[in-house]
Please model this.
Amino acid sequence: MKTILSFILIVILASTGMRSQGMPVYDNTNFIALGKSLIESAKQTSELLKTVKFLKEQKEKIEQVNSVLKQLKMVREITQNNQKLFEMVQNDLREIINSPFIKAEEINTISDSFNSLVDIALEDLNFMQGILTSNFLNMTDSERILLLEEQKQRSRQMVDELQRKKRRYEQVIEFRKLHQKINQRETGY
Model:
């Protein structure tokens, strides 16, 4: 009897333990919350990608504006150098030619030397205008800036050359003045 009682007790205990397990139950709210969170993350990622694209476009536009500003600054400096060159030629040439110590046959040579610089400056301005107004050989902005930088250096060199010529002719005039004073001095012996 003891065996039968213990057998029944084991069967009862074993059968009650099995009944409590039953079918697994899933909480669908966790899956719904996970789905909603994934959808929200995708929306945020999409917005971030749009923001990155927008910022890249703005960066490109800023770089383009900076490039144009560099070009304009160089063009302004080149034009200022050329304006200075033209004014120097106009004023200095008149001053040199009107000097009584310049001979008549030298006037054409002096005028030609000054006018050659003006002609080169005008050619450079036309070239620069061609670079800026047309898509000259499909140049990029950096290539255009390099060309303008060369033009700027060239205009500075022309101004320097004009100043050297002016100094040279002024020295010639001073030498001739001094020579005239020496020749016109009175001798007291």
Notes: The chain has a mean pLDDT of 83.
